[in-house]
Design a protein that fits this description.
By secondary structure, the chain is an alpha+beta fold. The chain contains twelve helices and ten strands. The strands form three sheets. It has a five-stranded mixed sheet with strand order 3-2-1-4-5, sandwiched between helices. A three-stranded antiparallel sheet has the order 8-9-10. Strands 6-7 form a two-stranded antiparallel ribbon. Strand 8 and strand 9 form a beta hairpin. Helix 2 runs antiparallel to helix 3. The longest helix is centred in the middle third of the chain and has 15 residues.
Length: about 300
């Protein structure tokens, strides 16, 4: 269940009125399930009054923020997946990230969340068109929750009208064609949902958790590793730690010439080690260095799960 709630538990503290309004909007979608919702959210609603863009965050605001997050990831609101009930997947994208969540109805036909997910966009993904971004968000949602969605019909909600017709493109771009291929094994209908009603996925996409992409030769493959975990393992790995030390201390005489020579092909971005892949004419693409202890976890996530490996 940690995987399904990480997008909420790591939801960062709002720093502006707009961010507070977005968080309250997300929580208010499930206010009927939260006793004394207005009372709990009152300290936060006070922050969005007036025209001050910046907010003065106090203890009472932090307590309200934490309580509401806890309600979102706890029973009776959050439910375990029921294999006998229909699944609804809602997605959204922003200029910074992707957000998605799945819901199922209870016995009274009231929707309850089963899981939430989000991830930040890569630098190159921020240049995608709106339709391509929405399709990327759909791929992210379906692959993230694939163990629940495989082999069943589901309903997808999104706030991009054109996404309903992505299958009908006569000459799709190479990028859209690749994303479309990832969806062929899933059975779903896409229904348009107005942006002002898509508050939960919108808030998740604007406050996405720090996910990474591992780039293979010809495709992007999303995995559930965060950069903090990568950074921690890099410091434990001897090769990575030697390279990092050499980058930080280039004049250290105790470092071997062999390591210094290899260091030329690496760089540090936000204190995380990347390999510099040179592409013509003078471009450099940073490739994340995955420490050995994590390699097996990555392979198992795609070949050891019931829905992993090759599909045909």
């Amino acid at each position: 269940m940690d995987k399904n709630t990480k997008a909420i538990t790591e939801f960062k503290q709002p720093t502006t009125q707009k961010e507070v309004r977005s968080f309250i909007g997300m929580c208010s979608c499930y206010r009927k399930h939260v006793k004394d919702f207005a009372k709990i959210a009152h300290p936060l609603t006070e922050l969005i009054k007036g025209d001050n863009k910046k907010i003065d965050w106090q203890i009472e605001h932090e307590e309200s923020f934490k309580k509401l997050k806890q309600y979102l990831i706890s029973e009776p609101l959050l439910k375990h997946f029921d294999d006998d009930k229909h699944v609804f997947l809602t997605t959204d994208t922003s200029i910074t990230g992707l957000g998605t969540y799945i819901e199922q109805p209870d016995n009274n036909n009231i929707l309850h969340p089963v899981g939430y997910a989000s991830r930040k966009l890569l630098a190159n993904e921020k240049t995608y068109s709106s339709t391509t971004l929405e399709l990327l968000g759909l791929c992210f949602g379906i692959t993230y929750f694939r163990e629940y969605l495989w082999g069943r019909h589901l309903t997808v909600f999104c706030d991009n009208v054109s996404l309903q017709y992505y299958k009908n493109l006569k000459i799709p771009t190479a990028r859209i064609a690749r994303l479309t291929l990832k969806l062929l094994d899933f059975d779903f209908d896409i229904i348009y949902k107005k942006g002002k009603e898509n508050l939960i996925a919108d808030a998740l996409s604007r406050n996405a958790v720090n996910k990474i992409d591992v780039i293979f030769e010809n495709e992007h493959t999303e995995i559930n590793l965060d950069l903090d975990n990568i950074k921690k393992e890099q410091t434990k790995d001897k090769f990575c730690s030697d390279i990092i030390k050499t980058i930080i201390e280039p004049n250290n005489k105790n470092i071997s010439k062999n390591i210094k020579r290899k260091t030329r092909r690496f760089t540090l971005l936000n204190t995380i080690l990347y390999y510099k892949k040179f592409t013509p004419p003078k471009n450099v693409v940073p490739i994340l260095v995955v420490p050995k202890p994590l390699i097996n976890n990555i392979l198992k996530s795609y070949h050891g799960s019931p829905t992993g490996g090759h599909t045909g």
